């Protein structure tokens, strides 16, 4: 049995994605940051763009902030966002850009720097109270470039201790989502390099610490859907940073190079949502889908709309896997039959269901076309003069 057409349309309409403030500005590579016309100049203009994307798609009701990139009067920003029709979503403390973090943040040998990184993160918990945010999204950039540069176990103890102080500052209705990354900015070792490192930290922290899977943070060829299934089984999958990658942390448009991988990841989610164990299903229902892409040469708003559509397509296709037949094929050793069932869901053109879902939500059938034909790109380009390059 697969989802009926009506169910499919309703499920697509109910599948929400968080966009991120830093996805609307000019980022780039270490070689050059290019600006595109109409780029937001302030956090309010980033929120305007997030609200526009929500009006066009109907499925992006929250926008993530990165602090201090988005430093402002947070109570006022919350009101402003809500007036525009969106809410403030997850908050990410930025503990990697100050000169003080030359030799790390939570794992810095200097206790005063570790305390500063903890204080910055705890400050973000206060911001969450003001904005109504529920997830503290933590990325720790610490690592070393050379053998001998750091003592792994000593750093680990500092890391656990610092994270615990931040975790303990959370309110009972808040959670921490803890990201891992194989390499970059460090190249010999990263203190939270993979899902296992993150999971171990989360297990020690407490029930409201969960792993964040950024699709660009693995070695090539790693089976991300298997990691996702494992974390779902442990009830420790907190969310995703969604982006597309060819090599590593490319931060390209979601699904632009690897739509099959995206589909297989979504298939683990929708499979868990239907799990007879209510704990597994509830864990899957709480997963945060956040975009974490950076526009290097592309137009930002169109790129965001493309990524949202890619997520919707992958999600919808995953609901077309005939789970009963797949179970039979698995249990009878029908290898080719099982793979064919998964593949035939992936091969289905689900765009007509997306159009119906958008109709149900009261928006345009083709958000990207509607945006391009609206006159807004020209208006924003004329109004927003002097956008800064970079965050
Ligand atoms: C680090 O590469 C990362 O994926 C983290 O999620 C940061 O918050 C984000 O990128 C900044 O773009
Ligand atoms: Mn990320
Ligand atoms: Mn990244």
From TrEMBL:
Keywords assigned by UniProt, alphabetized: Isomerase, Manganese, Metal-binding
Supply the Gene3D superfamilies for this chain: Divalent-metal-dependent TIM barrel enzymes
Per its record, how is this protein called by name? L-rhamnose isomerase/sugar isomerase
What SUPFAM superfamilies does the record point to?
A: Xylose isomerase-like (SSF51658)
Instruction: Provide any one GO MF term from the record.
Output: L-rhamnose isomerase activity
Enzyme type, top EC level: isomerase
Q: Does the keyword Nucleus apply?
A: no
Q: Which PANTHER family has this protein been placed in?
A: L-RHAMNOSE ISOMERASE
Q: Name a Pfam family for this protein.
A: AP_endonuc_2
E.C. no: 5.3.1.-, 5.3.1.14
Q: Which residues form the Xylose isomerase-like TIM barrel domain?
A: 65-250
Q: Which InterPro entries match?
A: L-rhamnose_isomerase, Rhamnose_iso-rel, Xyl_isomerase-like_sf, Xyl_isomerase-like_TIM-brl
**What domain of life?**
Bacteria
């Amino acid at each position: 049995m697969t989802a009926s057409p009506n169910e499919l349309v309703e499920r697509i309409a109910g599948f929400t994605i968080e966009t991120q403030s830093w996805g609307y500005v000019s980022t780039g590579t270490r070689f050059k940051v290019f600006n595109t016309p109409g780029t937001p100049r302030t956090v309010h203009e980033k929120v305007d763009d997030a609200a526009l994307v929500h009006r066009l798609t109907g499925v992006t009701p929250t926008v993530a902030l990165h602090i201090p990139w988005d430093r402002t009067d947070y109570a006022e920003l919350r009101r402003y966002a809500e007036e525009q029709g969106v809410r403030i979503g997850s908050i990410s403390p930025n503990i990697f850009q100050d000169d003080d973090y030359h030799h790390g943040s939570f794992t810095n040998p200097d206790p005063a720097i570790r305390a500063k990184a903890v204080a910055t993160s705890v400050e973000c918990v206060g911001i969450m109270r003001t904005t109504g945010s529920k997830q503290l999204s933590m990325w720790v950039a610490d690592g070393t470039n050379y053998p001998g540069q750091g003592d792994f176990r000593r750093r680990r103890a500092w890391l656990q201790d610092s994270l615990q102080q931040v975790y303990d500052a959370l309110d009972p209705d808040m959670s921490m989502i803890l990201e891992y990354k194989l390499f970059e900015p460090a190249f010999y070792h990263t203190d939270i390099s993979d899902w296992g490192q993150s999971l171990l930290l989360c297990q020690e922290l407490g029930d409201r610490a969960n792993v964040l899977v950024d699709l660009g943070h693995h070695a090539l060829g790693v089976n991300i859907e298997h990691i996702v299934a494992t974390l779902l089984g442990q009830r420790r999958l907190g969310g995703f940073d969604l982006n597309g990658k060819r090599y590593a942390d490319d931060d390209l448009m979601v699904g632009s190079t690897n739509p099959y991988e995206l589909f297989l990841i979504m298939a683990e989610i929708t499979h868990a949502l239907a799990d007879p164990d209510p704990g597994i299903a509830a864990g899957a229902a709480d997963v945060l889908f956040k975009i974490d892409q950076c526009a290097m040469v592309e137009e930002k708003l169109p790129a965001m709309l493309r990524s949202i559509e890619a997520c919707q397509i992958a999600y919808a296709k995953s609901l077309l896997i005939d789970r009963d037949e797949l179970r039979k094929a698995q249990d009878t050793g029908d290898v080719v039959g099982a793979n064919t069932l998964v593949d035939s869901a992936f091969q289905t053109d689900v765009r007509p269901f997306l159009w119906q879902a958008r109709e149900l939500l009261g928006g345009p059938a083709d958000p990207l076309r509607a945006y391009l034909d609206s006159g807004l790109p020209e208006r924003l380009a004329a109004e927003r003069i002097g956008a800064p390059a970079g965050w």
